[in-house]
Amino acid sequence: MKTHIYIAKITSLAFLLFVSSCQKDEGFLDKSPNGVLSTSNFYKTPGDAEAAAIASYTIMHDFWMKSIAFKKDIISDDAVKGQGVDLAALSNFDNLNFSATDGVNQTIWGLFYKGVYLTNLVLDYVPDIEMEQAQKNRILGEAYFLRGFYYYNLVIRYGGVPVVSSTKNAVSTPARATTEATWAFIEENLTNAAELLPWRNQYSSADLGRADKGASLALLGNAFLFQEKWQNAFDAYDQVIESTNYSLQPSFGDLFKPEYDNGVESVFEIQYRGGEEFSYGNGFNFWVRPRNGSTIFGLGFCMPTQDLVDEFEVGDPRLRYTVIREGDIISEEVKDFPFQSAWAPETGMSFGKYVVDVPVGGNAERHEQNLKQIRYAEVLLGYAEAAYRLGNTTETVAKLNLIRQRARGGNALVLPDLTGSEDLFAAIVHERRVELALEGKRYFDLVRWGLATQELGPLGYQSARQGLYPIPQTELDVNPSLTQNPGY
Question: In this structure, which CATH number among 2.60.40.10, 1.20.1050.80, 3.30.230.70, 1.25.40.390 belongs to the domain 213-271+370-449?
Fold first, then answer.
């Protein structure tokens, strides 16, 4: 998939220029333009369909989606932004003081809706292209998955949002759907995607990284968890597990190294190319890599908290790859510069995932690392939670122990197996936190569990807002059909 994205960026850029032109001139499509993409001269060939499908992924390469992806962590108790007033655009997120006028909030909303628009174009026009049916099904399945993915990311932040399912005859000022209706639309999209897409093992190596059936079912399971539809979640995750397409990476420490991108544990991850223009590479490593002034270090944002460190059990090997602490060797490349807590003045610790044991050379700002969105470990943890809610202690314990067994790496002195006599909900909360730490899951888990006030209240969380971001003021200004979220 990495080669496909690079080539398609040029096509999608022209495509987006067309979109922008159409929005400025409503009569543009009546002019039969020469040399400009439009719905009258595009969507004619299988190549057009492929280009449009790949363009639907491109919002994930935006600066805020890749380089500043850690935004999701600083709104939890796992991390703070760090580095004083630097990157002040994230200060409101860091302080849990979300604002309707915040530019970052507007960007997030706009990007996900841009993704929705691109997927709607695929679903509107690709069905009429004459092409091999299996290829068409896969392209439509990708679009359904991505539309579900983008709406999933909207609903967990904003609650019910405008559901726009087509570019044809679309309402210019759509009202918000209910939260329940938004989730129903997500379920419909992910179900359609799962029916149309192949399993991972049916893709060629060149297509690894595309959404597949497993990604669709895994995200569907997540959607059911948020809605407390426990049996549905259990069944969706079970299909992923029973497919045997995925397994835990044997060593936790290898998970975030670029040589293991699209590995056995990858269910869905965003693809990048290293050493190319900044648009194609991943700057995440540079933004979270420790800061000390050297050219092979980074900006040092997203500093883990002591509260997160204290959550790890004694001897848990995952801690080394999650949090960099005083005296730690970051990688062989900078072995002469052990980490100093002074480099992270707010907490004395630095972000470890994607950084520990990862050399960057001159490509820290345009690295080849993919960003993990769904790992098989998350599938197992979701399955364990659904099983617990259904009273299936055996399956809950079995899946939690799989995670713990991989984590301890053969060291029988740490992370003993659970027996089932423990407080299993507490075990689930604990295991999700330490396994998925700094992967943008914690805040949304606390909100859906009803634990956000308890855990985040001292950090500024306002329960009246129900864990939701504000609808951007710029959207309210141009769309009188929108209403603001509670507490704003």
Answer: 1.25.40.390
